[in-house]
Amino acid sequence: MSHALDPRQAARDLYDAIAQPDMAFVLVFCSPQYDLEALGPALAGLFGDTLVIGCTTAGEITPVGYMTGSITGVSFPRSDFSAVAERIDDLEGFEIAQAHALVRSLSARRDAALEGAALDASLDASLDDREPVAGKSFALLLIDGLSVREELVVSSIYSALGDIPLFGGSAGDDLRFTRTWILHDGEFRSNAAVLVLVDTVRRFTVFRTEHFVSSDRKMVVTEADPARRIVTEINAEPAGREYARMVGLEGEPLTPMIFAAYPVVVRVGGEYHVRSIQKVNDDESLTFFCAIDEGIVLTVAEGVDLVQNLENLFSRLHDDVGEPELILGCDCILRSLEMEQKQIKHLVSKVLARNNVIGFCTYGEQFNAMHVNQTFTGVAIGARCES
Predict the structure, then answer these.
(1) Helix (H, G, I), strand (E, B) or coil at 239
(2) Which helix (H) or strand (E) holds 264?
(3) Residue ranges of the FIST C-domain domain (predicted)?
(4) Structural domain contains residue 192
(5) pLDDT tens-digit profile of 138-180?
(6) Are residues 152 and 268 in the same domain?
(7) How many structural domains are present in the chain?
(8) Rounded to two decimals, what is the model's pTM?
(9) Which stretches within the chain are classed as H helix?
(10) Residue 227 belongs to what domain range?
(11) Interior angle at CA 50, CA 44 and CA 52, nearest 5
């Protein structure tokens, strides 16, 4: 990681920290405070032909825990990983059919890359110990966090992926809610996403967790603008006012800290998923981070111990993959705000650092077919599978 303010120096610091011979790909998560027009080319110049992807954040997860105003990242060795990526431009015009074409293209490129690598190994026996073989796959999606297209994109891509697990995060801009960026091909772009298909011979598991349980306080969305994720009425009352009443804060000003502390959940497929509120508008309507529609029943959620929830998660991940050498994490910004409110962020930082987590604070998280909120999702990667 680097806290250098100059984008070229920050890129150099990151390169010096993570560069290794024969890299398969590089992930970068950076503050939107950087001069992105300078940072993108600087990274491309340093890493050369290596695939470099990433996004802007609402906070970074570094080797020492949570940071802001920084850049962090990780590189993956070609000995154990193979990766191909496709960028999606013009998210506003994205259609379901594009997802199947995208996944077909990625799969074809992945197969060609693996076949070419196997041929290289057969021609040079010295490569045998470094050669990746086709292992199991996972997919990573990074997407513009203000596109309001996450649900359509992630559900259609996951459908096309078949049995390949997917996780990802929506890019942030430090709670400005103005513009977010995706890094690909040496340039930061908005209204875009990038999908990465990763093959590895290492043990891994894709996961998610949230630290909420449902309560008996329920409310119905009676008027909404689904295209803009805006709810104007709840229980036939102005949405902001009724939400405040339901969470016991009637008459109180609604802030991001309140939304973080009192999220609402919806029941989908037998499970509850968080539908976090982004902001209250001047007309008392509520803008959500996730899909919303009239007739949906919202349930006020109640929190459990966030630190213990993470400790339990990492214990399960250890059982699944052994000691994780890396955990890529996408952590909702509202979780970060809650940690600040409860003054436990330093404790969570220690837990993340101890478990080798690198990632970022998001405007939403993707897990398989779902776009969710107030969730921590990612992939835990362990040692090589035994042959």
Answers:
(1) helix
(2) strand 264-268
(3) 239-369
(4) yes
(5) 999 999 999 999 999 999 999 999 999 999 999 999 999 999 9
(6) no
(7) 2
(8) 0.87
(9) 7-18, 36-47, 96-123, 150-161, 239-246, 256-261, 306-321, 333-342, 345-354
(10) 212-303
(11) 60
